[in-house]
Amino acid sequence: MQLSVRSFALTSGLFFAGTVAVVGGAGLVFPGYGQPVLDLFASLYPGYAADGTVADWLVGIGLALVDGIIGGSVFAWLYNRIVRNSR
């Protein structure tokens, strides 16, 4: 069984963006919430500072979406390639 690269990439992107949205949104409402996780994201995404502003939160969501799409497409492509060659 092969994966749909497009579907898997979109799902991964939405999952990553959703994670940043939920944790970052909770951090906006409850300052300090999830700060270690947000600091981890800030270390991975240039341009995202995890400083607790709405603009920064939106940047983090956008970067996580792009990162998830790229990572998901690479994963699905590699998976399909391995499955195809193992038969």
Verbal overview:
By secondary structure, the protein is mostly helical. The protein has one domain. It contains 3 helices and no strands. The radius of gyration is 15 Å and the shape is elongated. It starts with a helix and ends with a helix. The mean pLDDT is 94.
What integer is the average pLDDT? Answer: 94
Strand content: under 5%
- Helix count, per DSSP? 3
Number-wise, the strands total 0
Total separate domains:
1
Structural class: mainly alpha
Q: In sequence order, what are the helices and strands, one letter per element?
A: HHH
- Radius of gyration (CA) equals 15 Å
The amount of helix comes to over 70%
Could you say which overall geometry the principal axes of the C-alpha atoms support?
A: elongated
Distance between the termini: 11 Å
Low-confidence stretches are none
Write the topology of this structure.
Elements: H1 5-29, H2 35-44, H3 54-85
Helix pairs in contact: 1-2, 1-3
Short overview:
The chain is 77% helix and 0% strand.
Features:
87 residues, mainly alpha, 77% helix
